[in-house]
Amino acid sequence: MTQARTPRMRFSTRVLVLQLAVVSAIVIMTAGTFAALMYQWLGDQAEERALAVARTVASSEDVRRETAVLAATPKDQLTPSFLAGGPLEQYAGAAQERTDALFVVITDDDGLRLAHPNPALLGQKVSTDPSVALSGGEETSQQNGTLGRSARAKVPVYAPGSSSTVVGEVSVGFSSDDIVAGMLRSIVPVALIAGISLGLGAVATVVMSARLRKLTLGLEPEEISGLAQDQEAVLRGVDEGVIGLANDGTITVFNEGARRLLAPDSTRDYSGLPLADSGLPECLAAATDATLTADAAEYGPSEHVVGDRVVIVSSRAVRLKNNHQDGALALGRVIMVRDRTEVQALTRQLDAVNALGTALRAQRHEFANRLHTVAGLLDIDRAAEARDYIGEIMQSGPLNYPAQDLSLLSDPYLEAFLGAKSIEAHERGVELRIGAATLIRGHITDPQDVTAILGNLLDNAIRAAVAGTSPHQWVEVEVLDEHTPAGGTLHLVVADSGDGLPLTSRRDRDGVKPDGAREVPAPTAGASGASVADEADEADEADEADEADEADELIFTPGYSTGSTGSSGSTGSGGASDPSTRHPSIPDPNTPDPITGHGVGLALVRHLARRRGGEVWVADAGTPQSHGAVFCARLPGVVALTPVSKEHS
Questions:
Q1: What is the 3-state secondary structure (H, E, C) of 377-434?
Q2: What does DSSP say about strands 103-108 and 113-115: parallel, antiparallel, or unpaired?
């Protein structure tokens, strides 16, 4: 029993979520990388700008002169009140306002503030290290100061008329908030593009998920995997041939059973090939053409000849019900191919069982009558008569089959089978007899093929005898075993009282020449009429022999049927019989079997014999004036010379 699965997210939903997560991660990483690079670039630009402003301020003659004066002033005099409103303070404020800088700070050679946006900090030491600038160098950096984090630059201030004496330094900074704001302004288009990309990715994912769901018919990967495993197990586990076709006629499935029945000598891979170009038998194309429309969703079963086999072909259109659309979704077609020989063998086995069952019922009825007789004699105190009657029964033995010389058969299986067939023949007014040449020294080892072949020949012979014009209807069977070092061979001969095989292939039995028959030329003057007539007679005899041979072989052709003619070679129905006198277990000969049908019986008999190295042939076609057809069969490997055990009996 299939266990209930824990509900889980559908595969298409998982794919959607996964793809959205991947697209989102890519967009976020791209946007983050762009923001970091943009921040770095804007910071570098701010530092370069601060350096340019600081150089401009430091190079001013007024700034150099005033800075040199204040640097020489005693440090205790550099108070906020002394410095506030001074020339440096005014110059630095103007430069700050002009460049939108966060601050412009000027210090002396000790790092004391001489100009600062916050007057309260004038005269105090700067919060960041000024040593690089005071030693004559320039530097740029992003640091935190009293006014917050900024991108700043520091340059030295030289004394007037000197390029080496440092009297102070100029520090200019731009707020990092302005850098972030610039970065955000630059990243808006990137964020917009990222959002659009994310939306397009989501739409593409939804479309692909819908497409995937349609292609997989709504099945989950686990279900598809299970179906694939089940399909492989089924296709390899059946003997029948299975061929799957797509809607365009391309072969999608071709199992080993199909190869064995349709192309046993081919190693070609048929999967992916169009059926029309595959070189397979034409009967497959007929089966598929019949299921192209909804009105003909099924085809067959029908019998076809493929090589030396007769196969049953059936086809069915495969459609899947779709709850979202009207009608059903066409998935393709499936062709089933079955070996007709195996079906025939099973049918003959069943016929043999039915015949034996009929014989046993008849024997049971006869023995019941005998027991009733004994019981009646005992009830009326006629014990002596009952004892005599029992003695007569013991001397006569069991119920005798209505078959002449059945005792010639030493094999119990053949005796029971032919005895049952004799009951069937007797109910149809036909006498079944065993030929005087019958000799069985061993026992049957393969009753399946023997039943199929002998039963088919007997059924045809009984039908031919019933349909014949002879007042005495009979069927004669001769069985002979031959033992060689290679194994035992069984020889069968079946003859009947029918009218023989009809020569319907090239001429009829009424002496009417068929179309195209050669006319005998009339004798001309001066010629020997007798010699011409003799030549014509010889030619006619040769033609008749050829025609007889052709007719004999024609009846073994799959699909050929003589209909209701009186011939044991007929695979048709034979003559009419009275339903009131026919045993229920005996099929109506006028009703064709939908499975075994007409036109394949003798073909299968020959195939069964040839499959084991034997043969079935016509020994005598027969005539209405003499006897019916005589069929012979040679079956190697079905007889063993070992003594028959009690268990086998």
A1: HHHCCCHHHHHHHHHHHHHHCCCCCCEECHHHCCCHHHHHHHHHHHHHHHHCCCEEEE
A2: antiparallel
| Pair of tokens at residue 39 | 């921040």
Q: Quickly tell me which residue has 């349709």 as its tokens.
A: 262
Q: Is the dihedral of CA 34, 37, 43, 44 positive or negative?
A: negative
User: What is the Cα gyration radius of the chain?
Assistant: 55
Cα distance from N-terminal residue to C-terminal residue, the chain? 46
Containing 210, the helix (H) or strand (E) segment is: helix 176-215
CB 429, CB 467: distance < 8 Å: no
What would the pLDDT profile of 255-277 be if each residue is shown by its tens digit?
888 888 888 778 888 888 888 87
Please state which CATH number belongs to domain 13-183.
Answer: 3.30.450.20
pLDDT in tens, 94-104: 998 998 899 99
Which of 114, 1, 101 lies closest to 47 in space, CA to CA? 101
**What CA–CA distances, in Å, run from 572 to 233, 273, 502, 546?**
40, 39, 13, 24
Instruction: Kindly give the pairing relationship between strand 431-434 and strand 139-145.
Output: unpaired
Closest to 330 measured CA to CA, from 270, 288, 286, 388: 288
Considering the domain 400-501+555-640 in this protein, what is its CATH number? 3.30.565.10
Q: Characterize the bridge pairing of strands 431-434 and 403-404.
A: parallel
Q: What is the rounded average pLDDT of the residues 59-72? A: 88
Look up the CATH architecture of domain 233-398: 2-Layer Sandwich (3.30)
CA nearest neighbour of 46 among 8, 106, 99: 99
The pTM is what? Answer: 0.47
Tens-digit pLDDT profile for residues 395-433: 665 556 777 777 788 888 888 888 888 888 888 999 999
CA separation for the pair 167, 160 (Å, rounded) = 9
